[in-house]
Amino acid sequence: MPRFDTLAELREFLENNATGMAHDTLRSAADSREKRRTDAAEVNQAITKRWSQGLAALDAAIFAMGQNGLMMLKRLDEVDAADPNDSHQTVRVVLALQQFNALIVLQEIQVLLQAGFWSGAAARWRALHETAVTAKVIAERDATLAQRYLDHGFVVQTRRLTAYFDEHGIGPVAPAELASRTKKAAALEQAHGVSNASSKFREPYGWAIPLMGMNAKGRRMRPSMEALEKLAGLDHRRLLVASAHGIVHGDSGGIGGTVLMEDGQWLGGPTERFIETVARPTFETLIHLAGATHVGFEPELNDFCELICLVGSSLMTLCGDAIEKFPRE
Questions:
Q1: Domain locations in the chain?
Q2: Which residues share a beta bridge with 266?
Q3: For a surface tag, which of 178, 239, 240, 326 has the fewest beta carbons within 10 Å of its beta carbon?
Q4: What's the pLDDT score for residue 328?
Q5: 290 CB burial (10 A radius; 0-12, 13-18, 19+)
């Protein structure tokens, strides 16, 4: 690379040579691909050897979550056919949503951990934690709150679609359908309005406004994940959530902790280190989530209640045992 005395000279060089340099980079990357694959395989083998029992337990947990989720879907269909006005059905729908969302996130965590990308897995753990919090809050309350949760999702997504269409003149929803959704969303906002609230239904966690306490001015406080964590009894992980937050948003603390290691090593790829720091809280969170989605799924003692509680308890026991397979280091 030649030296330049002015920015104008540098700009001219780049304009004349950037395309060629880009093609050179593509060729070099192709040549090094096999080495990257070899390095990735070595990390994968090291992780598999060191945490084989824990990773096997994660496989089992993912399998159980999928199988139990299918049971939940079957139950939803049965209740709809038998009694479409069942008062608990809305709660079941929300818990099934949490179950399948957790199933997807768990698989993402598994892939990232197995590949040595622990910070990515930690970021996805935060999503798992928030899913567990929501599931516990919904499971411990009634269909009214569950319906608020579902309607809030419709309102928020409609506003996102509308904003995108207004900005770009195009989107995944046709204008006529978007107009219909917007009308329905406005009606839902009005129906779910809470007097003396510090925030609106359409704002973050607006579905949880009725659960919030009053402030000194007699207004219901704005809902937040921190407040929901306390309601769910999962606020003991707040500091870990804050750390994951830094990774998710790439703030200076998050980047410093994931790129610059304690020993001064700069990290630019996968590593077999820190796997247990994500795996342990993942299993712990799954215990709480499984308890909420399974035990809260059926309000009355019947054959299905016994079955879903049994398989849920089995999954929770599996996760508890798995924690011991990822010892603290």
A1: 48-323
A2: 260
A3: 239
A4: 65
A5: buried
Give the lowest-confidence range in 81-85, 126-130, 237-241: 81-85
Distance from C-alpha of 279 to C-alpha of 259, rounded to nearest angstrom? 20
Q: Which residues pair with 220 in a beta bridge?
A: 197, 214
Please say whether the dihedral angle defined by the alpha carbons of residues 129, 132, 134 and 137, taken in this order, is positive or negative: negative
Amino acid in the structure at residue 87: S
Among candidate residues 71, 66, 152, 67, the one with its CA nearest the CA of residue 101: 66
As given in the structure block, the two tokens for residue 194 are 């809470």
Instruction: List beta partners, residue 243.
Output: none
pLDDT digits (tens, 9 = 90+) for 175-207: 999 999 999 999 999 999 999 999 999 999 999
Which band of pLDDT confidence, cut at 50, 70 and 90, is reported for residue 34?
confident
> Other C-beta atoms within 10 Å of 80: how many?
14
User: Which amino acid appears at position 311 of this protein?
Assistant: V
Report d(CA 241, CA 289) in Å as an integer. 16
Decide: 282 and 35 in contact? Cβ < 8 Å. no
